[in-house]
Fold these 2 entries.
Entry 1:
Amino acid sequence: MSSETIDVRYVAQLARIELTDDEVERFGAQLGNLLDHVGRLAELDTASVPATAQVIESRNVLRDDVVRPSLDRETVLAQAPKRQGAFFRVPRIIAEAE
Amino acid sequence: MTAWEAVIGIECHVELRTASKMFCGCQNEFGGEPNTKVCPVCLGMPGALPVPNMRAIDHMIRAGIALGSEIPAFSKFDRKNYFYPDMPKDYQISQYDMPLTQGGVVRYWLEDGTMKECRLTRIHLEEDTGKSTHAGSTDGRIAGSAYSLVDFNRAGVPLMECVSEPDIRSAEEAVAYLEALKRTFVQLGVSDVKMEEGSLRCDANVSIRPIGASEYGTKTEIKNMNSFRSVYRAIESEIERQIAIVESGGRVTQETRGWDEARGVTHPMRSKEQAHDYRYFPDPDLVPMEFNAATMEILRSTLPELPTARFERYTKQFGINVKQATQLVDNAQLADYFDQCVAACGNAHQCVNFVLGDLSRLSNESGTPVYYSNARPEYVAEVIDMLEKKIINSKIAKELIERIWEAAGSPRAIVEREGLSQTSDPGAVEGFVNDVLAANEKVVAEYKAGKTNVMGFLVGQVMKTSRGKADPALAGELLRKKLDAS
């Protein structure tokens, strides 16, 4: 696989990263190398291996429906880049509903 | 002119009723002071690890079994990635290709009692988002706002998304479908389903096609419907809009439209130019779930009789009308009480009349639910039994219902103690009839002059004179005989 198949600008846009033309070229090549490396897995015969979504063997790790203390609001809002009163203040939400 | 039919599919989000959130121990409760029910997990702090709430998983499986869905042996959570400040993690934990339930059927009924079915595509589990308020604009709309304020109390609340197949054909069916889902979830105890508190939110996909066509028309997605009434109005309005477009030679555009409650129309919502690319992938923080037959059986055994089954039992087996059956089904405890009354006396019709009539009235007046009252089902059954055997008449029966409401006690004993049994002894009733005829000469004259509708008054007088004990049918018969003979 090569960088030809990766739309670096699209991926950057999804990740909300601004790239210069030079970076698009450089990262494109690097991403291509990564995909080539991962692509080696395709050489293995996995016909008899069941698909998995997790490398850990555990299953059904659940917790009881019990309420635990939440954080203090001032502690929480102190982490916020911006706050207004009791709320997190965020850039205008650009929704489908715009 | 072409006759059109609508093709409607509904996606609804239902908040599950649990004590704590989906992946953390913060309280799951509507409202509260903003940002007071949050912790590192639901705020998406680096390193915080989510652990699924087992009650939410139980709720999902029970809902799935109740609706005839398949519960796959394997299920997992995925991350749905998007940049939207209502989720602090920049992704929402959801389910992509291996949801907890697949398929299923919602059976529901219309006001005239017609049974309908709508297939389910799937029900999956995800976490709710935070709640944002758009500030800095004059009209509260997102468009003109300068920034948004977010409360994360709701972020991480367990949310199930039910996706239906496009089996719904009208606004009426859409509302009846939602009501059936609501009843089922309330009966199962999986959700409070309060649309006004946002615990049920739905979108509808609507298209039209000529009746009999098998292909689908272009659909629009309708959002912002905040009550069953607005679901009805929005769908009706959208169907009309689409028919008008097509009949005037135009084409429906595939788009998302918002319902404007005040103006009674849908309007296009500007959508992002780029299609959503959520880049779903299995959430590495959460281990998969596997279910076996024993687990399923244990959860299945906790299911109560479901509202649709109960409705059909009442209408088909008992012959109760749609309105009364719906009233009972919508109040499960009252319906359980009704079932006990029927079990004790076998007369479903009298039971439904007393339960929805006198007993419900007494309940409304006193504020005591019927099933908490002194009027135990076996007492109600005794009243009905005495009424059926003509030991008492309906007037005494109503009085007895009030008596057993006021104080627990066998109505049969009251009847015996106070001599309230109906007098069907012709001699005794004749005595009352003679007294009434003697005391009401003027009315008797009116009757003889052809004004036969005074009969009701005379029967009433006999009942009064006998202090309610005379058999009214016998009294009427004797009165008529005497009046017509003389």
Note: Residues 21-39 of chain A form the longest helix (19 residues).
Entry 2:
Amino acid sequence: MSSRTIRRLLYTALALAFLLHNDLWLWDDARSVAGLPVGLAYHVGFCLAVALLMGLLVRFAWPKDLRSRDR
Amino acid sequence: MVLVVVLFYLGLVLTVGLLSHRLFRGTGEDYFLATRSIGSFVLLMSLFGTHMTAFSLLGASGEGYRTGIGVFALMASSSSLVVPVVFYFVGTRLWALGKRHGFITQVQYFRERWDSDGLGLVLFVVLVALVIPYLLIGVMGGGMTLNEITQGRVPEWAGSLIVCLVVLAYVTYGGLRGTAWANTFQTLVFMILGGAAFFWIVKQLGGLEAALARVADTSPELLVRGDKVRPLKLLTYMTIPLSVGMFPHIFMHWLTARRAESFKLPVAAYPLCVAVVWVPSVLLGVMGAADVPGLVGPQANGILVRLIHQHAPELLAGLLAAGVFAAIMSSLDSQTLSLGTMFTQDVVRHYGFHDRMSEREQVLVGRLFVIGILSVTYVLSLTASRSIFKLGIWSFTGFAGLFPIVLAALFWKRSTKHGVLASIASVVGLWLWFFFEAWSVPDYTLGGTGIIPAAVILVASAGTLIVVSLLTRPPGPPVLERFFPR
């Protein structure tokens, strides 16, 4: 896969994350997951997923001009 | 005991900040930007510590008490996405421009990007006006926290004075390096102590499951979002963390990075840091609603202190006070230094010395401004009303409304100074309108829909910038070649 394709995929995932932040389907859900209310557990998981996504972004889609500046 | 722990902690912070002076090179760039030498870990800790105020400990638990778990989605997980995205797209590019052109402040960059002294001056005034309430909140919050934790034995004025003197010492002496080192130490302290307080209190409440079961019995509405958070509020609240793109103190820390690579850790680890600080704070607030019911209004912000008093030994109360002080001072120091830097570089150096000022003069003037700013803030804190705390969100709202300016500066060649000036005017006008409209209305949203003022201001500011830029003459080739080289 080319670096441009990877970059586009990761940017799409970022846009998706903005949408997934609005978890309307859990609004009034009172269940527990992993000992936490599901509405909280979802957003803790969201933070972990965003950390992973940002990790992939800096690993595979770091802007070329910044790389050359460091050199 | 509480006071002994706090004083010991303040002594440690002072030592860390003052030790940094051993690396001081005596130049303006070293005092204001640590000679752009800060590595990944210190950059992460200083950015996170600067961005998180005492609100992330006391305010978050207070909001958890009032609103329930919905506050985490609203204020924390939204930041966990938006803030690192701003670091990645905006922070890294501003760092590169700062390094290439030798910028020290935001105003220098914007002034030269649109080749306009007037624009620089207008932005200077607006940015300073938005940071001042933030400073006051920090100084007053320090005094109030020490007063509450020592159950009134230390008066508020004394607590505020202690905070100011400690920050004054290491910021004046150590400059940005001292601030970054002290911030790193303090950020680790408030992350660790917040976690320690959480585990201790939850254990005393019979464990997480039992504590949440009690909440389910007494206040089940706090375990779902229900009517307490409206869907449109959750959506539009994503605009608030955009403020990070225009904070002068965050800009200053961005410029300190040693390399572009130094941003990688802050970008990837920021969401984890948010979760580590906010999950315990929100959960303690929610559990506190079952344990200490009946707190209303601002009283709810004291829930963490009350839980500590009820369930923890005095040593832990002292440690928590140290954690709160850490959160307060790690923001206050950067805000003070950034204002001192702006006054020195954007006013005295630019207008007084026409950009010719020796290194020693820059450091001296910078130090004098830090002393002046903290002294004035302290005096104001003695007379300011407690309602100033409501200004916190308005400060964020203003900075978020200005975000299209930094985006246009970096990514839109066609943007013009008139477009930016019109955008600033729209932010100031709408900000004032919403401020007077909403000041006395708790949880104000536009027509009760859930749409927050920051979202409206942001859209209007972006629209004004685009329309007026397209109607006015674009910047000349010299400016574009300088900032958008082929």
Note: Residues 47 and 53 of chain A are 10 Å apart (CA to CA).
